[in-house]
Amino acid sequence: MKPGDYLLCYLTGISRWIAVLEVTSQPGTDTAPIWKDEDFPSRVHVRSVVTLTPRPPSPSLSCATNSASSGAEEPQRLDRIPIP
């Protein structure tokens, strides 16, 4: 990773894209704890480019025969998010 790279953030618990972050620093090491159960010593500084409000998960499209009539939402598409 290097400054100017983008990170796409995906929230697995609800299967949603939630952010685009831009790396603003060179990679570094920091042993200060972030979470109590695991170590994450490799870090970069980032800035938020796009933040999306997570919505509850949609019903599985594989169960629907016609998504237009099933009430299923269109999936979020990152290609429609403008990045300045």
Q: Say what oligomer this is.
A: single chain
Secondary-structure class: mainly beta
**Total beta strand runs:** 5
What gross morphology would you assign? Answer: flat
Helix content: under 10%
Q: Distance N terminus to C terminus?
A: 20 Å
What is the count of helical runs? 1
Structure report:
The chain has 84 residues and is mainly beta. It has one domain. The protein has one helix spanning 67-70; strands spanning 6-11, 16-23, 28-29, 42-43, 46-51. It has a three-stranded antiparallel sheet, with no helix packed on it. It has a two-stranded antiparallel ribbon with strand order 3-4. Strand 1 and strand 2 (16-23) form a beta hairpin. The longest helix is centred in the C-terminal third of the chain and has 4 residues, at 67-70. The model is unreliable at 63-67 (pLDDT under 50).
